[in-house]
Amino acid sequence: MKKFVNIYIRLSVVVILALCAGSSIAADIQDDFSLIKGFFPTADSVTELEGIPPSAAVLDGANVLGYVYYTDDVVKIPAYSGKPIRTLVGFDTAGKITGLKIVHHEEPILVVGIYEDDLQSFIDQYVNKFVNDKIKIGGKDREGYKSIDTISGATITVMVLNATINQSMRKIAAARGLLGPDGKILVQDEATDEEPVWVYVWRSKVFQIAILVIGLTVLMLILIMQDWLAQHPTLLTYLREGFLVYTVVFIGWYSLAQLSIVNVLTFINTFMHVFSWDSFLVDPMMFLLWGFVAVTILLWGRGVYCGWLCPFGAMQELIFRLGERLKVPSFEFPEVVHERLWAIKYLILLGLFAVSMQSLVLAEQLAEVEPFKTAVTLHFAREWSYVMYAAGLLLISAFNRKFYCRYLCPLGAALTFPSKFRIFEWLRRYKECGRPCQICRNECEVRAIRSTGEINANECHYCLDCQVTYWNAYKCPPLARKRRKDESRGSAEKQAKNGTQNVEFQR
Fold it and tell me: CA 463, CA 213: separation in Å to the nearest integer?
């Protein structure tokens, strides 16, 4: 837990940091000469960055050994964070790559969960390849192509890195007029435009996209047909539990498409600076999920995501249902405590938002209050403190339904704000709900129904349990009264009919 303590201690200095100017990225190539010496051991100096696009010559006396440059000075491909990754690249006069070093990034997956040694091992794969090699991620080498291995859990980031390095090297080689062994220029023009990274990523994930679209279509049909399904509770139960398993296994563990408060903070940060669709299209699963969430928030509210599409939320729900079947006793906080615990997730959200205004990287570190990376993205393969935290929250969910979602989740808190603009009220209520009937309120296991009968859309997870009760003529008091009246009327009519038949028979 020491790591968590250290991270949250840093939060105490955020207010002071906010008064200071944001740190800038060093732009002077001379500041990185020690790194350049690692690329060119005999170098004794480096010129200033010059030319379009800018690069610097590395010198041994008057002899030019090669060239170095920063990738984001050449091509600005937004990565997962919405910002380019700044990488120092060097290659010699023959076009052979001599070294690479990432000097700045704000990638959330690289800040937490992926180690610097992993990142350096990935970067080292480019060394001794040539600027005119077409370097691709995965597969085997073939004519004109060189393959490198990816980093598990950081696929999108390494794809962006690869495209950035490939395109920028060719542009610099063309600008410097490098010659091959046959006397021709290695790159004969300024690197013909290559397709955007997001196009390549979408094409490489066709299977995952298809399965996700099918799943979202099924969920949309469930939502549209919710009244009919609520009248068939057994079918609804099978559909819901099956979909929760799909969410955990396919959306979460297989596709690594767990939405996060980091996505929200990144979107706000990008929107406030230089907005680009490319930074969001680069991950098709996340893009489609966020698009679906945006639509369902306007139609149904945030509960659709929290109740059906969040992998960690689905894990908690399934664990709770398993606990019910095993007769594990559950507990609830007193009402006065419960209502105040709701506020915690909003305070966490405000804190993360405030930190992100100064440092998105620090905000991403503090966002480890979300156990999503541990439980979903990294499959619990992390340090014991992170695993204990995520496992502890899942264990609590066996006794208290979706404890984390209800009280701690900053993403759920963030989604309540656009939910204020939802267009329809799909969850049906009777005038007797809460006046005096309290059945649905007592049965709501996330306690999103007020004592007056109204459903608190900010806290509802759209499980549809209350709608099952709404249509149950043996459980819902208004329907039960109507059923009894209909049965009494039917019985009276039947008796009257039988009486008439008896009279006719006697005649």
Answer: 21
